[in-house]
Amino acid sequence: MLKLIKLEWKRNNISRLIRNAVIMTAVLLVFIMITAGEAGADVTTRGFFNKSFIHASVELFTHMSYMVFTGVMLAGLIVGEYEKGTIRLLFSYPIKRQKIMLSKIFAVWIFNFMALVISKLLMYAVVLATGSFTHIPSTDIPYGYWLFWVELLLGSAAMISISFLALPVGMKMKSSKATVVAAVIVVCFTQGNIGEFTLAYSVPFYTLLFVLAIFAVFLSTYRVEEKDV
Amino acid sequence: MSYILQTDHLTKVIDGKEIVTDVNLHVKKGEIYGFLGPNGAGKTTVMKMLANLWKPSGGRIELFGETLTPRSYEALRRMGSIIEFPIFYDHMTGYENLKMHCEYMGYYQHGSIENALALLELSEAAKKPVKNYSLGMKERLGIARAILCKPELLILDEPTNGLDPAGMKQIRSLLKMLCTEYGITIMVSTHILSEIESIADTVGVIHHGRMMQEIGMKEIEQMSLAYIELVTTETERAAYVMSDKLGIKNFRILENGEIRIYDTAVSTQELSKTLALNDVAVTALGRKNENLENYFLKMTSEGGAHHVEIN
What we know:
Chain A is mainly alpha-helical. Chain A contains nine helices and four strands.
């Protein structure tokens, strides 16, 4: 399986994906730091505990960006293969089709989870390192609090998993564009707010979406061996 | 008889329509099997099922002595195929595409990629991304990939598409060489008989999703394809006389007053005499030889097969 995942990354030019993720993170960081400087010491109540504006911003914008990034990768690695017909080549190899599909799913999940976690860590590190001259207090980020690290990892894993809800939509419509649009809609549902109302950080809501995402992955690989390609 | 590949009443139904019906084909080990049929006859559908990409709606495929199931992964390791058109990852170079193929096939033999590329004269082009390849180059790269892992069976769907006559000839020679020197069994489809006439050992003719004929090339060569050509202004009357007075049943009426009589035992003198006695004006009468291409065309033309008798 690991070999198949590596092949997926290699074929889909992982260096270019990393470059794109780095550019996206840099742009987000600049944007967040500018807005954080303006916002000062506002506190938001999102999540397991109260967060400073900079902390909440990092979480929100990285989640939004990487959920869309996951949608784009699902479109490229899975739906695009069906669209272009290259999946026929992969399914002509002496490998279980389900294994090929799972390798693609893991290739997308692992890449985005890692990239999301690293992006967050980099952003927090920059805020910490530049605190003395940006006037954004690094104490706003609770590095020493264990729940901070749990939320960082768990939240990242949940967000990337939930993005997979876009997969069956793209597969059904056999369209890469539909996959990305579906991912954006998922982002709006999970990260957006209407006035004061938001479903962001609602644990039951995320749990439900996570279960649905698992089902979405199951649907996308269900009876794949018997299907005509 | 040892068959490397055979089908038993292979059928494919899509959206309630039978695309392929009861196809029985038999490919012997070590031969080149020409799969001949006009466009839309069902060649690609059959080949997709043989390559396990499409699943049969009915019937059975036996590959390497075992029934093909959706989980027959090992059979895929022993065959190479190009179905419809060769598919590549266009942003990767030709070499990278072949290397990736080896990785997925679990085939690691030093120099095999270079050899396959050299065989198809693609050594130089292999460094370029496939998106810059011409159609002919893609076809050749597809063949290079299909033969790369030394398969026992090659399934090639119209592999000479997009090739110039020199390229077609090169592919024909290559297939012959792969068959004779490496013992690879090859099933190759085409809608042009002349493409495989010189290399095929057996030809299977498919039309409207049905197998019309499966015949060895040697048998065809031995078979007399002679006919008597009769030109008259009164085709209907001539047909009546031939059928009623001479008992000739195996003939075909063409346009411009031409009648072809495939029952070559008929004496032209007797035919001429009987027609004259029955007031049928004969413009021309003589024995001719049909070429092989026409023979197959006739078999795959609408209703043509009903008049052809082959033993």
